[in-house]
Amino acid sequence: MKTWTPKAGEVERKWFVIDAKGKVLGRVAAETARILRGKHKPQFAAHMDTGDFVIIVNASHVRLTGNKLQQKTYYRHSQYPGGLKETNAGALLKKKPERIIEMAVKGMLPKNTLGRAQYTKLKVYAGETHPHAAQKPEIYQM
What we know:
With about 140 residues, this protein is an alpha/beta fold. The protein has five helices and six strands; from the N terminus they run βαβαββαααββ. The chain has a domain at about 15-60 and about 105-140: CATH 3.90.1180.10. The termini are far apart.
């Protein structure tokens, strides 16, 4: 008995739309990472990119539980001495609502070349509209 593995040409990619309005950030990010990796498919292989494309709309209406809007801190560094900047989740959600979902999903993907390739299939938009209507995305129910 040999183990079956999918070929690169056999992988069919779909497009899914997830509406984040009123949904908890972590739950949206976990489900998105699952779809990007391809774990929802029967032909999943951990060493291949078998995942689908994901479009997340209404990122500005995502919900954080507890006191995370004030207490959760995001850091970035300018690569210069003393260049560490910090922002709390509430300020980041007002300024760049897409970034908060992108960072949550990126943290749930593998930290290697495959994870970076899977991350490129994520498209996040703050509002209701997106420019991917030509791909005929399916609405993903969570």
